[in-house]
Amino acid sequence: MTEEASETEGVLSYEDEWWEMNCSIIPPEFNRLMLVGVVGAVIAFISVCFNTFLFVVLCRNPRHRHSHLIYLMFLSVADIFLSASYILLFPVNLYMDYFASEWLAAAWWSYMRIMITISHVFISTSAFLICAAAFERYITISKIACQFARHHRLIIIVACLCIAIVAKGPMYFEVEVVPNANCTGVTSLTAIPSEFSESEPYKTAYKFWFRNLLTVALPFIMCFYLNFAIMHRLRIQHLGAKLFRFATSEHRQNIRAATLMLVAVTCSYLASNLLNVVVYTWELVDKESLLSENIRPLYTLSSDLVSLLTVVASACRLPIYLVCNARIRCEVLDYVDNCVLTHLNIKPYTGLGSKRCRATTVRYCDTGSGYMIYDTKPDEVIPSPVAPNKKGERRVRSVGTGLDRVVLSVAMGSIKASQSSAHLTVPLNNSVMLIQEE
């Protein structure tokens, strides 16, 4: 009788131990809950709002669809998807364990595979888009004759998406959701790797080498090299501009601002992916040590930080554009004034518009005795050279010297002789002004 009782107790203790190991809910640590479930969720939500707003602003201007800003437009779309995927994957997973919610668990297991795939596809797509934009900016400031990058931007964007799908799309089939033995409630389901994903050579050749090298190492190395090359080229051009006294050129300042904006975006990508590269290198050298009892908590924290830093980089893109690019800043402020504040019946701040920088265009006008150069707003029609506006003020102003007018008259005569429209760059008072024929 005593032996039977001891055997029964042994069986019960084994079942309790198995149940506790496989079916019990392990609540997340407080620090991890705050980092991922609160801070990460807030930053991801801000990223979704910022990038949605940025996409709407960029889409309103048709000119951006034919400029380098189209990369930023599709980059904002990729950031929207990866930020939304972060919210649905990481914070919700912690919430379902913390609150022991069967409803959240059922929802999370239903979309887990597709969200993981979408997030990784758009993370890779955003990296490739940043590389493509950096490459085009490099060949632009280097004055390299490569028209394919400028005239086939949509093809490059589609190619970036297709490469990302080839590299990360199969992740959907690499995980299977199966019942977790006799467990019920939140732990009733579990995820296991599919059979073909653990077979060779798929596991080593494709998952480890091809995927990681193509989507982690290669974009990081390319962005690092292009970023360094762009900053080196900017330094050389800045010294040359000082030497030839062209530092005040508005055209050069616009190019420099666009380049610095892309450099800032690339630096944020490099900073956010540095930890990912370190973890990937460690996995490449000694993956088993990461699963040891001492290193595993650090490995888990590093994995959480890798995902969080990616979302932080996405949320920082709009502030970077506002600080570095005057044209995007003006369009954002105009959209806020004309669309957001108007619909809310809020009077725009009057001091804001006066401080806005407006892009100007230098145009020529035939006065009958030669060509004059005028500085106007982009949407402003050039009036008569002597006609005042409604307030009696002369909005347009002549710039340049008498020699500039002679040079411009000769240039315009050459253009009319060839019967073609052109954009000329004429030196005016030690600065370069863009002369546009309309």
From TrEMBL:
Spell out the protein name for this chain.
Answer: G-protein coupled receptors family 1 profile domain-containing protein
Q: Record's Gene Ontology CC terms?
A: membrane
Keyword Ligase in record: no
Entry keyword set: Membrane, Transmembrane, Transmembrane helix
Species, as recorded: Caenorhabditis latens
User: Transmembrane residues, as ranges?
Assistant: 34-57, 69-90, 110-133, 154-173, 208-228, 260-285
Q: Which Pfam family, any one of them, does this sequence belong to?
A: 7tm_1
Question: InterPro entries in the record, alphabetically?
Answer: GPCR_Rhodpsn, GPCR_Rhodpsn_7TM
Q: What is its main location?
A: membrane
Q: Where in the cell is it found?
A: Membrane
Domain G-protein coupled receptors family 1 profile, first and last residues per copy: 50-321
Q: Which GO terms describe its molecular function?
A: G protein-coupled receptor activity
